[in-house]
User: Fold these one by one.
Assistant:
Number 1:
Amino acid sequence: QKEVEQDPGPLSVPEGAIVSLNCTYSNSAFQYFMWYRQYSRKGPELLMYTYSSGNKEDGRFTAQVDKSSKYISLFIRDSQPSDSATYLCAIFNQGGKLIFGQGTELSVKP
Amino acid sequence: ETGVTQTPRHLVMGMTNKKSLKCEQHLGHNAMYWYKQSAKKPLELMFVYSLEERVENNSVPSRFSPECPNSSHLFLHLHTLQPEDSALYLCASSQNHRPQGELFFGEGSRLTVL
């Protein structure tokens, strides 16, 4: 079983929609979770990180961790064309390594 | 000036060529990384350097040879590559290697092997 799994998409939504991006992970001991955003022809950049369970909000973005289900989510409210990018979840495994999901390609249409 | 700079941005090479990718970080970090990014696949960690010492080599073929002459510079030397090595190669840096914190990535070098 892969340590982190993410649906690669692509996901296409109209402007203003609420977007839900998700990852599952294999080990309930994992505690640090990150979301990176990668624009076309650019390197990934850290968008948000969370520790343990619960929600974290930053503007239009909310990161959510459900440890009981081993499921993490990134919600984007009022999505904009400028949000079009690939979103990668990343999780620190027990060895202290950052393990990335495949990335979900998101397109927000005007 | 961006934090992590990679050159060249694009590279096309034949299977018998020898080329090098260069990475420079201006963030004062102690750890530097090479990742391979292929379509629809997770980022693959290739090499990790901490304070100029290679601390990780994830079963990467010997046709990829890293070099870290100082804490700000990282190279990836390429020779006799295969077409399946075509990918985006990303350099990254972080404050430390253990524990590994936020990674700062360069824009990548897009490699095409003919």
Number 2:
Amino acid sequence: QKEVEQNSGPLSVPEGAIASLNCTYSDRVSQSFFWYRQYSGKSPELIMSIYSNGDKEDGRFTAQLNKASQYVSLLIRDSQPSDSATYLCAVTYAGGTSYGKLTFGQGTILTVHP
Amino acid sequence: DGGITQSPKYLFRKEGQNVTLSCEQNLNHDAMYWYRQDPGQGLRLIYYSQIVNDFQKGDIAEGYSVSREKKESFPLTVTSAQKNPTAFYLCASTLSRRGELFFGEGSRLTVL
């Protein structure tokens, strides 16, 4: 059984700080990694994807992937109250017959307080 | 605007009834998926379809059925055999084999 583990939190950071969200996965063959943001009562929204080792930056978001350690993280710089949400880590195979079959972690609740 | 439309947004069902949740997309995506989310939990895959007239069971398919007669449509039926159907149901689709999923707004089903 492929597993994706996240700290459920809640993680509370002050406005302007860096929020660090972590995720580990069990399947060494996993190749595609995603971070989704989900506001309460809403559907998940894709905010970052990463496919190779290293860092990927998009605005205030940075995703970091370390396949050797089976670890992916999301950093949110200059956190804003509007970043308060649940962040879901998701992992899948790339290509083959399994594409799109994401395995999700349980999510980390982030609260950014003014 | 392109997107994924789910209906209804809220649905109440009596025990023993089957209900069908609609999912339509105009993104020209080949693959479509149904996920279930329970409070405080991640998403779990129910069924998926990567091509018209073909679909596969996900991790929790028991008590559910689907059809894929058109590329744009992937309805989910929650049958009376599903023991705990109260949940938030999410339909998604993707064009890319890298797997980026885009979700509809969801349907919240409550069994009375």
Number 3:
Amino acid sequence: QKEVEQNSGPLSVPEGAIASLNCTYSDRGSQSFFWYRQYSGKSPELIMFIYSNGDKEDGRFTAQLNKASQYVSLLIRDSQPSDSATYLCAVNSNAGGTSYGKLTFGQGTILTVHP
Amino acid sequence: DTGVSQNPRHKITKRGQNVTFRCDPISEHNRLYWYRQTLGQGPEFLTYFQNEAQLEKSRLLSDRFSAERPKGSFSTLEIQRTEQGDSAMYLCASSLRPRDPSGGANVLTFGAGSRLTVL
């Protein structure tokens, strides 16, 4: 089992729709969860993070966390063509080490928003 | 502060040569990370420093890879005897050690990356 798994893509949604991106993680000790966006040829940039169960909203983005199910998701409302990118889920993890200082990333989900 | 700076942005080398990448983190950040990313994959953790101390190194990382952060500011990542499989984007990121010892919100800010091509 991979440490962080994201729903297989690519995901295609029409402009104005809600895009739903999902992520599961294996380490029950993980406490912080991050969503990064990566445009083609660019480096990842932070969208938002969450560490309490429930929802966290930031503009058109909502992160949802369920630690019991080891599941985190990102909803993008009113999707725009400029949202087309790869979305990376990341979890603070001590896998293979002795501290929770690093982030472990999923493989990413490619999102395409078509006009 | 212009963010995390990485040099060189692109490096083409022949198999067997050594290469070195440099990363200058955000000045007030005390943690520095190196990741590797290949096409279609998420960033893969290599190693990280807190100040000048290397706190963790991936067990999957070959002995040909070494990283330093001698004064707790910039860092270098050296790859010796490069192989074609080393071709990737090498990403550096920095962060502030979170107050919460359990991890907290350790937000990483990435540099633009150094792309390595081994021929």
